[in-house]
Amino acid sequence: MTRPKVPFALLSSVVTVLMAPVVILLLLFVSLGALESGPAWFAAIVLALALGGIVRPHLADLLALRDYGGEVSWRGHQDPPALTFPSAAVGLEAAIARLDRMWNSDHKELTESVKVLKTILDRLPDPLFMLTAERQILRSNRAAHSLFGSLPEGRNLATMLRNPDVLETVDTVLAGPSGREGGKGKAVEFSLPVPIARSFRAWIEPLPEPASDGTVAILTLYDQSAEKRTKQLQTDFIANASHELKTPLAMLSGYIETMRGPARDDEEAQEKFLATMAEQADRMGRLVDDLLTLSRIELQEHMAPTKTVELDHILHGIADMLAPAVEARKQTLEIDLPDKPCVVGESDQLTQVFLNLMDNAVKYGGDGSTIEVVARPEKHNGRDHLAISVIDHGVGIAPEQMPRLTERFYRTDAARSRELGGTGLGLAIVKHIVTRHQGDLAITSTPGKGSKFTVFLPDAPD
Hints:
Layout: H1 8-32, H2 37-75, H3 86-123, E1 128-131, E2 137-140, H4 142-148, H5 157-160, H6 164-174, E3 186-192, E4 198-206, E5 217-223, H7 225-260, H8 267-299, E6 308-310, H9 311-328, E7 332-336, E8 342-344, H10 347-364, E9 370-380, E10 383-392, H11 414-419, H12 426-436, E11 440-446, E12 450-458
Parallel strand pairs: 7-9
Antiparallel strand pairs: 1-2, 1-5, 3-4, 4-5, 6-8, 9-10, 10-12, 11-12
Helix pairs in contact: 1-2, 2-3, 7-8, 8-12, 9-10, 10-12
C-alpha cells in the first residue's frame, strides 16, 4: 500500500490542540512580566513547527492503518503498509490482521452455509416460497420454478397463484398476532386446472421473527394429485369393473351350470360352450389389463416425459405387427413420414397410442380399403408440434357420437366392438397418454367415408 499524504488541515488541527496548553502558559508568563511577548511568540512558533515535524509521520502511519483496515474489510487480505514507526503500531496492525483472518473464515463459512441451504431447498420435492409481509416472493426452489415455468422471485404471490382461498389464507397468517387467527400456520387445499389438473395442499407458516432479508413466512405446496387420483381410481375401477364384468361372468356361470346339468353328456355342446367360455375369459382378461393400464397412466399424467423418441421406428414396428390383419382384410397400409420425425415422449406409451389408433383403423376401415398414417410438422397452440394422423376410409362416426368417443366404455357400436374384442377403453387410454405428453387429440369423421384421428405431440429440441 502507498502511504497517504497528511492533509494540512488535519496536521494544523492536531498541532493546535497540542500547542494550546503551551500558548496559555506563555501568555501567563507574559502577563506576569516574566517573559517578553516577542521571545514568547518566537518560542511558540518554533515549538509548533517542531511538533508538526514530529506529529506528521505518526499521523501518516495512522492514516495508512485506517486505509489498510478499510481495504481489508472490503476486499479481504491486503499487504500491510510500510510504517515510519512500525513498533508503535505493531499491535494495531496485528489486530487488524487477526480481524482479516476471522472475517475470511466467517465469510467462507457463511458462503458454504448459504450454498448448502440453497442446495437443500432446490432438492426438496415440494414447491417452496419465501414471502415478505407484502406477499412478495423473495426466494423459491427448483420445484416452484418447474411448476410455474418461470422465476417467481420479485413478483407478488397473487401473480403466480390466483386462487382466492390461498391468498386469503396467506393474508390471514401474515396479519400477525394482531389478527384473531393471525400468527399461526394454516393449510388450505386448492387445484391448478392447467396444463393438467392437479390438486395441492398449501401450508403457510410464519417465522418466529422476520429474517434479515425480509422473509416473514414460508409457503409450501404439497402435490396430492396422485393420492386423490388413487382414491378416485379405486372407486372407478370397482364401479366400472363390476359393470363390465357382470355380463361375461353371468355367461360363464350359465354355461357352467348348463354343462353340469342338461349338457353333461353332450360333447358337441360342451365343445361349443368351452369355446365361448374361453372367449369370455379372454375378454375379461383384456378388460382388467386395460383398466390397470389406464389407472397407471392416470397416476403419471401430471409428470410430463422428457426423453426424445423417434416415431419412424415405432410406426413401422406397429405396421409389421398389424401386417397379418391387414393382409387378411386385403387392405393397404401407407405410412408417410418426414425425415427422422422426433418428439418428446415415452416410447412404450406412444407405441400404445398408435397401436390403438392403427388397430381401430384396420378393424373399422373396411375390406380392401387403404389405411393412411401421415405425419407433418405444424404449429399448434403457438408451439411447434408434429401432427400424426391415422386415416381410414370406413363407415365413419355419427356427429352426435363424436364428443363421447374418449369416454370410458363408450362404444359407437357396442355389439360390433365386443365382437372385435374391444373393451371400450382404447380411446380413453389414448387421450390420457396424449394429455400426459402435453399434446392434443383431434378427431374428424364423415359417416360412410371414414375417420381421421390426429395426435399433436411437441417437437423434440434439435
